[in-house]
Amino acid sequence: METLVQHLIASGAFGKNASPDMVATIVVFVMSAVVFLGVAFPFAGIVSWAERRVWARIQSRVGPNRVGPQGFLQWLADGVKHVCKEDIIPDESDAPLFKMAPYLVMLAFTLPWAVMPFSSSLILADLNVGILYMTSVTALTVVGVLMAGWASNDKWSLIGGIRSAAQIVSYEIPAGLSIFPVVLMTGTLSMQGIIRAQGWAPQHWFLFANPFTFVAANILYISALAEGNRTPFDLPEAESELVAGFATEYSGMRYLFFFMAEWGNLFIIGAIIATLFLGGWQFPHVTKSVVVMNILQVITFNVKVLFLVFVSMWIRATLPRVRIDQLMTLCWKYFVPISFVNMIGTAVWVAIWPDGNAAMGYIMFAGALALAAVFTQRVIYYLRRSRMEVYFNPTI
Amino acid sequence: MSAVSEYVGNIKDAVTSIFEGMAVTASHFMRKPYTVQYPDRMPVRVQDTLPFRYRGILEVDLEICTGCLACERACPIDCIVIVAEKDPQTRQLLLSQFDIDIAKCMYCGLCSELCPTGSIHHTTEFEGADYSLESLIRRFVKDPVMAYKPKKGPETDSRIAPILNRGMTYLDQWAQPGGEKPAEEEPA
Amino acid sequence: MSTLHTEEMTLNMGPQHPSTHGVLRFVVRADGEVMREAIPDVGYLHRSIEKIAEKVGYHGFMPYTDRVDYVCAMFTNQGWGMACEKLAGIEVPHRGEYCRVIAAEFNRIASHLLSVGAMAMDIGAVTPFTHAIREREMINDLIEELCGARLTFNYMRIGGVAWDLPPGWREKALAYLDHFDPILEEYNALISWNKIYVERLANVGVITPVEAINYNLVGPNLRACGIKWDIRKDIPYSVYPEFEFDVPVGDGHWGKLGDSMDRYVVRIREMAESSKILRQALQKIPGGPVLAKVARNFKPPKGECQIRLESGRGDMGWYVVSDGTGYPWRVHVRTGSFAAMGIIQKLSAGLMIADLVTLIASLDVIAPEIDR
């Protein structure tokens, strides 16, 4: 970003008397507004439509397809509907806290976009503690959710809020521990630094660098899902038990804020995994033009993140909910010990092969391809056995 | 040692069963949804796709109603109101009121089973929603009409014959209570 | 270590709730996440159906029996038909009995599909519910061709069934069964053997065999405790002795004997057994009439009778007292869900709130059957 700003100032785009600090500040404000209003919030809305369409195909039905082409404007219609609703604030609730809670959760969703590496030069702020900033800022959801649960003056909301707080705080630990292997391998916490340490080809990604990072990637993904209150860990908003958990007493747009934050978090989860393990925006150097390279890199990054978002939706449609004590058992008895083992294993690996082991990358990639082949075979088996009509078209 | 094997076994079970589940779900992506997009994205009207025996909203063909009141007696919920009196001058049965309250009707089919001519029958209509409760009382008699007297042989009146034909075919598809209905299927 | 003094919360899982199967209310005394007691409160769906029988007469009561348990309407129809036939000594023609068995077993599959689907949804998996409903819709299409309605069938009459099988229906039914058997295995792969699901269900709400008998449980709830009791085999009625089928019994393979997983697996296996019965019935169905000759003004002799039959929820009992007129003196239905409500209060001590939902779902409680 700084190079871009200096380039603009040097070319005289802002006039001769512009001071670099003020220009930089204005550019950052404008870019932040563009990213938040143009990318983050619409994404959160569009994910709701996409999730409903993806779920519907998995469930043998159609999903919203009337409002706009293929139902694409459904999320706008939902937003308008919620804005038009009556804003109910329960009489006995703690009104200031009640009103503030959704905004805190939205804050936890908006702040990580500051370090989102869209391409090699498109990043709002390339902090050199980028990944640490990202994970710590997403933990602000705990405060918001607890506030929502308490201020609602409703026993069911309280149960939901406390469950969620316990869950998010517990799963911070495996998530943080699973970031360590990558940091050990690159020696830096900055997002661009980690991406630059990987290559564009799958065998150079950290996912396949050694078996410890493979397991760490999986644990990070599952822990991030748990932090985002997604199934199989959506106990705080378990619909069949607590109606809507901590968000029961909310109505209208306040209710949607919680869910926009949850849907938007999908992108952030995907971005963390894509950056750390899947090579981020890396794309083979095919042209000398900086602009075209940047565009290709943005597309690569988005493709990877959107694939992970799709996998999150797919998992949510498939798996049942985990009970709170089983959730805690999973975290403390399974994920934390395995994360420690990963960390120590990676440390030993880096000590033995400081420059990485290319052969392992090829072997792991081949193993992953074999796993994908087995998966495809099972899919075809179920497709053939069911005798239902096959239909590959995503539109209907 | 068994604790370690149980631990590893738990992880293995979790991974394999979730893998299978995701394969099933992924195979559903490629299947045609079972949804029928009613009412606008369908090739034919839904009412025409329903089976013959579908018990939809009741309808009465007054031309062939004999005024026997069997349907009114059979209805368990008393939603049919018929007024049939002998006209003093012509000595014939005159139907002056035949109301069916489709809001009360529970679509059980007991009335249409007993009709001797198939005059009261179920249609395949099911869209009865309306804004007022009074409009749900279907009144089938506009002006008093004479009840129908079934003839010994085939019906000669060309206006009534097709209606009677439809009614008797409708009844034919159902076993008459107390009747010896021959089997339609060959035994295997 | 001295225990912390924590206060007990009284929560209300009220009549309007996304999870309870119908209109039920539970007053839950909970200490944080763990419950001390869950007291059921029934009666929200009472419609005086048993009293209505005294007003509408024998023939007219048949549509009302559908509403006693709308998920298993064929069984309630059959129960009323059998009770009146026993009172008056009417014999149902052989083909009529076959039609009854075919309709009843299809209804059993549909009822169990709804039960396992709703159970999966309560646990949190949303897809198995829609898949189960899709299969149920196919069965509903078949039955719609057979009798004209999709939920409240009114298919059986006193003395047999109302309508014979339409032409071509047998082939469609056999084609559906060929489609259904692989789908059941796919359903199992999706959710039944899923580790998370098994962990949620195993060892939750364990009912010992002695408790089950004392609390009057019937049907899959009883068979899951290891007791092999099925009215179709032990007090045979209709033409069930002519079919070969097995009665699945719980075996505690996934946890303790008599836990929720056993109840769930018994239902899945019963669907496979019903499919077997249906294939045999559709092959062996004889010719002949389907309805015996019964007077329009049916007046059974004075007396009382009781019949039992195996419905989707278990042993359903019908008790009819006749006083010689065309209107029954008293009708009483004894349903499996009513007994299951009694055991919830005892089992709920020590369960978590999430487990209460699992328990209710696994007992397959249908609210209209409790209150009638």
Can you offer a commentary on this structure?
The complex is a heterotrimer of chains A (396), B (188) and C (372). In chain A, 67% of the residues lie in helices and 0% in strands. With 396 residues, chain A is mainly α. In chain A, helix 2 runs parallel beside helix 12 (290-318). The longest helix of chain A has 39 residues, at 20-58. The two termini of chain A are 43 Å apart. Chain B is an alpha+beta fold and 188 residues long. Chain B contains five helices and six strands; from the N terminus they run ααβαββαβββα. Chain B has helices spanning 2-29, 46-49, 70-74, 110-114, 161-172, and strands at residues 58-60, 80-86, 93-101, 120-122, 137-139, 145-146. Residues 175-188 of chain B have low confidence and may be disordered. Chain C has 372 residues and is of the alpha+beta class. Helices cover 49% and strands 13% of the residues of chain C. Chain C has a three-stranded antiparallel β-sheet. Chain C has a three-stranded antiparallel β-sheet with strand order 6-7-8. In chain C, helix 4 runs antiparallel to helix 5 (127-147), helix 4 (94-123) runs antiparallel to helix 11 (260-284) and helix 6 runs antiparallel to helix 11. Chain C is globular and about 75 Å long. The model of chain C has no long low-confidence stretch (mean pLDDT 89). Chains B and C meet through helix 1 and helix 4 of B and helix 1, helix 2, helix 5, helix 6 and helix 7 of C.
